[in-house]
Every structure is written in structure tokens, then in C-alpha cells.
Amino acid sequence: MLAMIGKRLAVGLVLLWVVATVVFLALHMVPGDPARIILTGTGATPTEEAIQNLREQLGLHLPLWEQYTRFLGQLLTGSLGESLRSGTPVTELVGQRLPRTLQLVFATTLVSVLFGVLFGALAGRRGGWIDRVLMVVTSFSVAIPAYVAAVVLVYFVGVQMQWLPSGGYVPFSDDPVGHIQTLIMPTISLSLAFTAVVARMTRTAVLSVGEQDWVRTGRSVGLKESRVFSRHVLRNSLTSVVTVSGLQMGALLGGTVIVERVFSWPGLSDLLINGVTTRDYPVVQGTVLVIAALFVLLNIVVDILYGFIDPRGRD
């Protein structure tokens, strides 16, 4: 198990370096001078001298390779740099917004896994009309983009019926009920496709495991059907569910951007989009790297859980 974790960490570090390099080069290929954008944003018409002075102050006048070297050096010291616009450390900016995005990701994962496993196990065990209805519903759910579901919920639930707030964020410490209310619709929007994928995977795994010889043997020796299903069929079906749930959860880290914008949820989306718009290189690079690092860490956690569920996955 330790050897497996070590290998995953090594691969993860290489992936983070690749991501950092790609993001760095991609940002510097985008047209637009950050110094000019920053000075123009003040409402005045900047002089070329002022633009050049700001470029030197921000280190943008250096050759690309030297900027890249400085960037990697900062990463090795645990620093993500400072915002070109505000001068605030990127770690501080990300630290303020990351918990809100993670809250949305974990709430979506919890809802999706619980209902996905429940519906998938029910369809795989019962079959018949329940199975057919599930296939239709999950196919429909997977086909709906999260941002489309978000817009529909805002219009009907938030604006027309006024059952829930159509957007915004309320800290849990200020108003627990209001915080949960603002969390419901974003979670539903993101969990529709996630739940459908987990349900279909659970159903397939349950049907496959249920045909194994050792399951038939358990039934033949007189074990109760409920015991056979819960202890032998469902448990051995969870390996694939854990894997697909981990991948879907990782995708949510980057997939919440548009949904957060629709519901005005102050997570990483505003930070990332504003950073791209204003060419704030450190903010964009730091945000993307944090998301990538979480994705790598999540995959390692999934591998560890897989190893506990199925000993064959420990190698």
C-alpha cells in the first residue's frame, strides 16, 4: 500500500509540473498586456512610460524563460505569488474562496452517491419497470448540462415560485437556515448528472456481481437474500462506484465555475474568471494549480479506498 501511494505521489508531482508549465505558457500566449490593462482600469489613459515602469515593477519585462524560472522557484518555496492587481498573496485569495467551492463539491458528492447507489441498487436488484424507468431518467439527466439545470432552477424555483433564493451566499455562522437554502439549488444542478452516472454504474455492477458463482453458492446454502445482496453483491459492487465517484468529484472541482457564476456563489469561479479577464497571471496559475493538486490528491484517496475495499487494488 505504501509503495502504491509513493508511486501515485510521484506521478502526481510530475502532473502538477506539466499543468504549471502549460498554464504558464498558455497565459503568456494570450494577447494583452497586464500592465496596460491594470492602468487602463483606473479610468485614465496611461502613458507608455507608466506602462513600462509597471511592467518592470511586476517583472513582466524579463525574458519568458526567466519569468518561468522565477515562477517555479516560488512554487518550490510553497508560494503562489502575488496578485498583479492588488498585491495580495494568491494563497490568501484562494484560501478565502476554496472552502466555499469545496463545500459545494462535497455536498454534491454526498447527495449524488447516496441517491445514485440507492437507485442503482434498487434497479439492479428488482429489474422490471423500475429498471426501465431508471434508464430513461438517468439518460435524460446525463444529457442536461449543469448550467442549463441551474438556469432552469433559478427561473422556476427561485423567480417564479420563490421557494428558494435565486442566488447569493449567506455564511453558516450568520444564518444556518439561509446558508442551507442558498446551497440547495447549486447542489441539485451539479448532482443531476453525477447521480445518474453513479446509478448506472451501480446497476451494472450489481447485475454483474449477482451472476458470479460465489453469489449463487451463498443463496444455495440457505443465506437470506437480503444478506447475500448487502454483504456480497452490493459490497463487491462498490469498487467501481468508488472509482467513478472519485473521477466525477474531481471533475466537479473545475466544473463548478459556471454554476457558481449563475448562483453568485463566491467560490473559485470569480477569482479564476476575473484573473483571466485582467491577465492576472499569478491568480490564474495559482487557482488552476490548487484545483489540479486537489484532483491528484483526490485520486490518491480513491486508490487507497479502492485498496481497502478490494485487496487486489493494493499493488
UniProtKB/TrEMBL annotation:
Major subcellular site: membrane
Keyword Iron attributed: no
Entry keywords, A to Z: Cell membrane, Membrane, Transmembrane, Transmembrane helix, Transport
Pfam families recorded: BPD_transp_1, BPD_transp_1_N
Cell location: Cell membrane
Coiled-coil region list: none
Transmembrane segments: 102-122, 134-158, 178-199, 241-263, 283-309
Membrane topology recorded in Swiss-Prot or TrEMBL: Multi-pass membrane protein
UniProt KW Cell membrane keyword: yes
Residues annotated as domain ABC transmembrane type-1: 98-306
Protein family per UniProt: Belongs to the binding-protein-dependent transport system permease family.
Protein name according to UniProt: ABC transporter permease
Source species: Nesterenkonia flava
